[in-house]
Design goal:
Mean pLDDT: 90
Number of strands: 7
Order of helices and strands: HEEEHHEEEE
Low-confidence stretches: none
Oligomer: single chain
Shape: extended
Largest sheet: 4 strands, antiparallel
Radius of gyration: 21 Å
Distance between the termini: 28 Å
Number of helices: 3
Strand content: 25-35%
Number of domains: 2
Length: about 160
């Protein structure tokens, strides 16, 4: 409802606010990100499914401020990650260049095997190494394949 005067497509009915205030409804509001979400639980794992539109009136949910929580990755740092990905091809090369990672997550990166003969591929979990201090605006992520070859990418740095 907060954006209703600014955009005629924004939710103005108040349903999301009422649902979030009702403890019997699995909808909540995150003031830090300005987002409504559905609370989900699968076994011991809890998560959130973000709400983009009001289920009552179809209007837009409030504009998220999540992007303000993260730094913008500079073009120079993006270029350097591409350079690193071309230069370092194996886990040994990465460890020689940068040493032990700041974070090591065995099986921390999941990817699906390709579909075969009409059957969905199985989920494969690869090791993930993170280097938090190589670049000023990005976190380098090194995904280690079973043959010790690597894929290098980046993620945004929290502010």
């Amino acid at each position: 409802m907060g954006n209703a005067p600014l955009d005629p497509y924004d939710c103005g009915c108040g349903w999301l606010e009422q649902a979030a205030a009702d403890s019997s409804v699995p909808i909540d509001f995150d003031a830090e990100t300005n987002e409504y979400y559905v609370k989900v639980k699968m076994g011991e794992t809890e998560g959130r499914m973000f709400i983009k539109f009001c289920p009552n009136c179809g209007g837009d949910a409030p504009v998220s401020t999540r992007d303000k929580l993260f730094s913008v990755v500079s073009m120079e740092d993006r270029r350097r990650v591409f350079e690193f990905a071309s230069k370092y091809r194996t886990k040994a090369e990465v460890l020689t260049a940068w040493g032990q990672p700041d974070e090591n997550h065995p099986g921390g990166y999941g990817v699906s095997d390709p579909e075969k003969e009409g059957h969905a591929g199985a989920m494969v979990f690869l090791d993930l190494m993170r280097y938090n201090n190589i670049l000023p605006t990005a976190i380098i992520e090194v995904i280690v394949r079973p043959d010790d070859r690597v894929n290098i990418s980046y993620s945004v740095r929290p502010k």
